[in-house]
Amino acid sequence: MDDLFKKILSHSKEYGFVFQSSDIYDGLGAVYDYGQNGVELRKNLREYWWKAMVQLNEEIVGLDSAIFMHPTTWKASGHTDAFNDPLIDNKDSKKRYRADVLIEDQIEKYRLKAEKEVEKAAKRFGDSFDADLYRSTNPKVLENLQKAENLRKRFAQSAEAEDLKEMQQIILDEAIVCPVSGSKNWTEVRQFNLMFSTELGSVADGAMKLYLRPETAQGIFVNFLNVQKTGRMRLPFGIAQTGKAFRNEIVARQFIFRMREFEQMEMQYFVKPGTEIEWYEHWKAKRIQWHLSLGLSSSFYRYHDHDKLAHYANAAADIEFDFPFGFKELEGIHSRTDFDLKRHEEFSGKKMQYFDPELNESYVPFVVETSVGLDRLFLSVLSRSYDEETLEDGSQRTVLHLPAPLAPIKAAILPLVKKDGMPELARKIQKELSIHFNLQYDEKDAIGRRYRRQDAIGTPFCITIDPQSLEDGTITIRERDSMKQDRVDLNSIKERLLNECSMESMLLKL
Ligand code: ATP
């Protein structure tokens, strides 16, 4: 798995998908830039989400709210007071960690120890082995599972009570060491607010402290009535938005999985109070269906229902994805009650209510939200499309099996050789098709090497212009996954690409 992750990292860089930000200055932690192919894949993912949300649902409309918002927004939403992570520093390595992550890793260690015992026994006893029975009776397994459970309970209590002293004590009692220095020389645990702040106006004028938004959702909440009134929207209706969000993440080690500047794609669905659980179930099902329409194996996805809910939620689940480093959150679906709108009413003094013409009364709607990170989505698709294949002749190829509508380049235009009128015809074809598709023209190197270059960036089709093309107006079209080549009439390519590369085929699956 680790190996796959390393390969994805170097492939992303080598083929212009993702670069470390400010690379020439040795980079900036957990900040990334998208290169010439990455920007296209990311744009296509965003567009596919937008079409599925806004174009296919007449009751959902879009919004693009500003990154800067009035600072009271974040007081109302609770972010100023409570958007914190508990952090701890190791005095020897000077490395900073999330205390909760260190403890959760320790719990996982006990669980893994127990599982190792089970695996060892399974090898020893062979076919007759009953894993469940062993788990519930073997003293060593039971001891480790008990340790995990005790620690989980103790940690949950400290988190609930926001008892930072107790969290530090847990780290000391468990003799957790810093992975870098190997020492137990820890500072106290402190709360650390994840919002980035900046200032509006000059200091002399009495500048106003602003925050870079840590989520896009609040822009939707504060515009709820603007959109409802001007769009004459009736409940239930949704507002969708994509845009940058910023979090000063303490632990940011997993490439674009956890970034300090990232993009969210969120939809807030406003519903009549009392119907929210029904809508929550609806969106939970809809969103996993959307992910499955991307064509990756369904075994990569699972739900994780939250049993501990945030104070404002009455139901919440994550869609988790099997990233190269294990199952982790890809998207959150939350039933947020009327918490946010009520808080904005309270802090702004403005009514955030919907007049229900059927009931002839006004009330604050409830909200079901779907929230997915575009960068995590990008990583999920890239890492599970990546493949290294051994071909019949024994040679190797690296290929991205991206769905054609998402691929950065839809077709490569390749004159077989750089002479005899082939480049000219190829350029003519390129000019005509480039109105409809993102293409790449390539005349350098042997045709096989050119195919490999396109496979590596996931280009679904290669169009080769050879001497016969000049005689009878046919070309060969090579398909990426099967590597099958067909000779077809030049005039049929546009239709074929339109059929196979448009998002319609994917949208039809929804
Ligand atoms: P995590 O527990 O992984 O920190 P979260 O529960 O804080 O995530 P939410 O606040 O629910 O995340 O945000 C919604 C989505 O935004 C997440 O499912 C994820 O896809 C994305 N996201 C959140 N934080 C980051 C980040 N630092 N980098 C990239 N994507 C992120």
What can you tell me about this protein's structure?
The chain is an alpha+beta fold and 510 residues long. Among the domains are: 203 residues, BirA Bifunctional Protein, domain 2, CATH 3.30.930.10; 117 residues, 3-Layer(aba) Sandwich (Rossmann fold), CATH 3.40.50. The strands form 7 sheets. Strands 3-9-10-16-13-12-11 form a 7-stranded mixed β-sheet. Strands 20-19-21-22-23 form a 5-stranded mixed β-sheet, with helices on both faces. β22 and β23 form a beta hairpin. α2 crosses α13 and α5 runs parallel beside α8. It is globular, with a radius of gyration of 27 Å. 32% of the residues are buried. Bound molecules: adenosine-5'-triphosphate. Adenosine-5'-triphosphate binds next to β10, β13, β16 and α13. The site of adenosine-5'-triphosphate has 16 residues, from β10, β13, β16 and α13.
Give the low-pLDDT segments: none
What structural class do you assign from the helix and strand content?
alpha+beta
At CATH level 2, the architecture of the domain at 39-67 and 215-388 is 2-Layer Sandwich
Quote the beta fraction: 15-25%
Q: What is the overall pLDDT average?
A: 94
Helix content: 25-40%
CATH superfamily of the domain at 39-67 and 215-388: Bira Bifunctional Protein, Domain 2
The CATH topology of the domain at 39-67 and 215-388 is given as BirA Bifunctional Protein, domain 2
